[in-house]
Amino acid sequence: MFKTHSRRPKYSEHMEGPIILVAGARPNFMKIAPLYKVFKQRNINTILLHSGQHYDANMSQIFFDDLGIPAPDIHLEVGSGSHAVQTAAVMVAFEEVCFEHKPSMVVVVGDVNSTIACAIVAAKLHIPCAHVEAGLRSGDMKMPEEVNRVLTDRICSILLTPSPDGDENLLAEGVPAENIHMVGNVMIDSLLSNLEKAKASGIVERLGLVEGEYATLTMHRPGNVDDEVVFTSLVETLEIVSSSIQLVFPMHPRTRARAESFGLMGKLESIALITEPLGYHEFQGLIASSKLVLTDSGGLQEETTALGIPCLTMRPNTERPITITEGTNIIVGSDQAKILSGVEDILSGQGKAGRIPHLWDGKAAERMADVIIGHIA
Ligand code: UD1
After folding, report:
1. pLDDT of residue 16
2. Domain 19-184+360-376: assigned CATH number
3. Atom 16, ligand 1: which residue's CA is nearest?
4. Same CATH topology for 19-184+360-376 and 194-347?
5. Model pLDDT, residue 41
6. 308 lines ligand 1 (CB under 6 A)
7. Is the CB of 144 under 6 A from ligand 1?
8. Which of 51, 55, 77, 80 should be mutated for ligand 1, with most atoms under 8 A from CB?
9. Which of 22, 28, 185, 272 is found 20 to 30 A from 50 (Cα to Cα)?
10. Ligand 1 proximity of 319 Cβ (cutoff 6 Å)
11. Pocket of ligand 1, candidates 59, 218, 254: which has the most ligand atoms within 8 Å of its Cβ, to mutate?
12. pTM strictly above 0.85
């Protein structure tokens, strides 16, 4: 039997309420930090909410410390689970928060399960929702993030894009032009304002590395690590790469779990220097001094472009095409020949130089705040 919720507020009751800024998983924290700081500087009544999707200290707390953001005002503590369990848990808990705090707006970032969960809750309560990093499309609906991106953009009314391809994708999907605002890449705000601390983090020395003489490797996509055949074949390719350059691999917890269950940990430890997930300063310090980066991450494609470090993306596609057309990124998928020739080109000095895309200038959060405040006013 379905019941209607007697406490469901009307949107008119929300107009004076706070803005709720939502974060849940590691790639969210460097996107909310600059925005939180600008909101505070402008005296905007802001609630910082953490869904708890990521909860290990080195997947969450260390980013709050490094990025100088305070503990969240509200922590939903949902933890891990299947996609349905995790998304539903965030929705149930976040709806209660909206009933209690009557926000004037919800701001969600990126493409993780917490993003879509909070966007759905806001949309159904008629609370305006802004999406930071809107419009990105890989075209690959087998990626959970692509499902989250497409659906979040469909139900948010303020779409803040990092690059022109985002605007083009949204217009092609029929989004009204007045809902789309190209404000630039907020993750680069965090990168630029923390670069000095990153370079002073001492990570290169701590790991006994030599600047410019190692490759940073990250891998955690279900498409690469959940399938034993694909993961094993990538490890074989990486073994060949490791004969040309030292590999450093800060390992995501899901990757470690899969490597252990497929019996690949021993091989990985023999071909790469494996570390726990690193904090923000140490990780940016590590990539800034890398010869190259091999990754299946989204954000890392952008950070390497901003830093001018060659990047080989081990995925069949990217939702961040500007890192290819303008930046240092090349798509190599899981294809051994492409990975090896990409590495060889970089080691022989033929890596892509790239340039910094328009509006990746460290001021995206200011522009986002202008749009958001303008909307509320
Ligand atoms: C999520 C995002 C992905 C992002 C990635 C960055 C979705 C759909 N995916 O993937 O886009 O690139 O975060 O990390 O939201 N775990 C821990 N400790 C933690 C968090 C997770 O051990 O603090 C382990 C758990 O076993 C968990 C698994 O990692 O089941 C996966 O975590 P989950 O948040 O479901 O997805 P990610 O792979 O991290």
Report:
1. 78
2. 3.40.50.2000
3. 253
4. yes
5. 95
6. no
7. yes
8. 80
9. 185
10. no
11. 254
12. yes
Q: pLDDT at position 6, please?
A: 43
Q: What parts of the chain have a pLDDT lower than 70?
A: 1-15
List the domain boundaries for the chain: 19-184+360-376, 194-347
Residue with tokens 């809902």: 179
